[in-house]
Design goal:
alpha/beta; Rossmann fold; 2 domains; 8-stranded mixed sheet; 32% helix; 17% strand; binds zinc ion
């Protein structure tokens, strides 16, 4: 397996990033990512993954483009208003880079259909804007054992959370009966903050997708990484998965001399009906 001449030229600047750059590019080409939600977060995440050379994307969204989407959702043009988001997004992404395989699911999926889509992907990315969808994808991530990368932005607040089979799950953090979700429809939203959050998510995804199994196995757990001095490659050597903060959530803050995401460990709820002791079938602990 190698890159074509065309791919070598297209990705030539990425291929300058270290001795293992070709291996990392090839790992990225092998990866399939599910992106649920093609709004303010999903558009830049999908766009960056496709630009960078991901192998395949499953794009899921049941909405049509609205005029009020356009300040943040840059895959759509004014004359796309009223058209299905997933189809328009896929067409733009194909124009940009014809190499990645794109699967389009222009609908809201039931559990079975979403599980089928999730099972063939390496990573699930939650860019949705409503609580039932977040809980649905969280549950399927837990059941299929797939890592879940998620972002949420409303008002002037932005959060990311990265979960895997060893960490707390999203349901540990929220009350599933919580009916009122604060989203950009009710709270407004800052377009640049959405893009910045999406790019932080995309950067983490690319770090993860390009890491080898050995690099992931040998990674320094996030939170202990500050024992390692910064090298010349600031902030971290590219493709080194010690920077993947699974089991943490990141909150955007601009204060003092720091602008960016502050990361905090997540606590698992032993009573969680999704991942806790009470979710295990009878007889299991
Ligand atoms: Zn849980």
């Amino acid at each position: 397996m190698n890159l074509s001449d065309n791919e070598f030229i297209r990705y030539s600047r990425s291929l300058m990033l270290g001795d293992d750059a070709l291996e990392r590019q090839l790992r990225l080409r092998q990866a399939r990512v599910l992106v649920l939600g093609l709004g303010g977060l999903g558009c830049p995440v999908a766009s960056t993954l496709v630009s960078a050379g991901v192998g395949a994307l499953t794009l899921i969204d049941g909405d049509v483009v609205e005029l009020s989407n356009l300040p943040r959702q840059q895959l759509y043009q004014t004359n796309d208003v009223g058209k299905p988001k997933a189809e328009v997004a896929a067409a733009r992404l194909r124009q940009h880079n014809p190499h990645p395989q794109l699967q389009v699911l222009q609908c809201r999926l039931n559990d079975e259909a979403l599980r089928e889509a999730a099972e063939v992907c390496d990573v699930l990315v939650d860019c949705s804007d409503n609580l039932p969808t977040r809980l649905q994808l969280n549950r399927l991530a837990r059941e299929t054992g797939k890592p879940l990368f998620a972002g949420a932005v409303s008002g002037a607040s932005a959060q990311l959370y990265l979960l895997n089979r060893h960490s707390a799950c999203y349901q540990c953090l929220v009350d599933p009966d919580w009916q009122v979700l604060q989203n950009c429809r009710s709270m407004g939203v800052d377009p640049a903050l959405v893009t910045l959050t999406a790019q932080q998510l995309a950067w983490l995804l690319l770090q993860y997708l390009q890491a080898s199994a050995d690099q992931i196995a040998q990674a320094v757990p996030f939170g202990q990484a500050n024992q390692i001095p910064f090298g010349q490659a600031n902030p971290v050597p590219f493709g080194h998965a010690s920077s993947i903060p699974f089991g943490h959530y990141g909150r955007f803050a601009a204060s003092g001399n720091h602008i960016g995401f502050h990361w905090y460990p997540l606590q698992q709820d032993p009573g969680c009906t999704c991942c806790g002791v009470s979710s295990a079938p009878e007889g299991e602990v």
